[in-house]
Structures are given as structure tokens and as C-alpha cells.
Amino acid sequence: MSEYDIVLKKKSPAGAVGLTVAGVALAVLGSTKLIGNDILGMTILSIGAIVAICGLIKLVLVCQKDAVNYIYAPTQKKLKPHKIYINAADRLKMDKCIETNDFSKMKTMGKENSSNNMLHIFASEDGEIAVLQLLEYVPHFFEPASAVVVVRGNEARNMLEFINQK
């Protein structure tokens, strides 16, 4: 997606490693006799163990293959993923919006908790850019029902308003 100035950036494990090291250090401090009070030592040991375990869990999650962020290169803003299920009655309207790149009419469309039509959107929080694709449920999985569309400026802000409306 480099032609749209969108880059894939792997999440850094530095925070998870730091959390794990801090937890281990607390656990070691709590287990030594440097602290004269046994109750305080056990409390610090327990807190250290919990922090270390949380760090290890975060490390495992960050090191997974799909632990990546999409970044809009000009602003270095992260694109957040959104999945919105579109009301079946509004499918033709959505097709027209995608075809004409005019998303101002999306505010009138209904959202569902579950539907055969899903709009998969990656959008920046400031409404600078949005990348979307309409997917249609075919038994057992969603298949693309439109091309990937990149919108910027006012149309991206319209998309963000649609995402945030109840």
C-alpha cells in the first residue's frame, strides 16, 4: 500500500521487555533479605511476579506475526481498524458511495450488529485518511465485494463521522 503512503510497522517489544525486567527485579528484591520486614518482602515479591507475568504476556502478544500497525506516512498517524456491518437494505447505497467516492450520504445508512455486508475500514483518528473495502459474507467467510478505496480530506472525515455515529 506504499502508493497510498501507508506503511506497515511492526510493534516494538521494548515496552514488554522493560515490564518483564522490572517485574523480575521487584521479585528478586522482594525475595532477598535486604528488606527487613517479611510481609513487605513477600508483598514486593508478589507484585514483581505479577508485573513479570504481565510483561511476558504482552511480549508474546507483541511478537505474534500479525502484531502490526498501519501508519499513514506523511503524518505518522496510526490507522485504526473498524468493522461495520451494513444494513442489507442499504447495500445499493453503499455500492454507489464507493463507486462515486462520495461518502456524505453514509450518515443515513443503518448499522447492524451482524449482517452479510461488512465494511472494513482503517482510518486515522484525525480524519485525514481512510482505507475501506466492502466485504460480503459467503458461507464460512467474508469475500471482497468492492475494490480497496482510499479517501482523504472531507470524504475521510465523513467516513469517520459514520464510524462514530451510534
Q: Quick summary of this structure?
A:
This protein is of the alpha+beta class and 166 residues long.
Characterization of the model:
This protein is α+β, with helices and mostly antiparallel strands and 166 residues long. It folds into two domains: 67 residues; 90 residues, no CATH class. Helix content is 39%, strand content 29%. It has four helices and eight strands. Strands 1, 2, 3, 4, 5, 6, 7 and 8 form an eight-stranded antiparallel β-sheet that branches. Strand 5 and strand 6 form a beta hairpin. Helix 1 packs antiparallel against helix 2. The longest helix is centred in the first third of the chain and has 25 residues. It is elongated and about 70 Å long. The mean pLDDT is 84.
Tally of discrete structural domains: 2
Helix content: 25-40%
**What is the N-to-C order of secondary-structure elements (H for helix, E for strand)?**
EHHEEHEEEEEH
Strand percentage? 25-35%
List the helices and strands and how they pair.
Elements: E1 6-10, H1 14-31, H2 38-62, E2 68-72, E3 77-86, H3 91-100, E4 111-112, E5 117-124, E6 129-138, E7 141-144, E8 149-152, H4 154-164
Antiparallel strand pairs: 1-2, 2-3, 3-4, 3-5, 5-6, 6-7, 6-8
Helix pairs in contact: 1-2
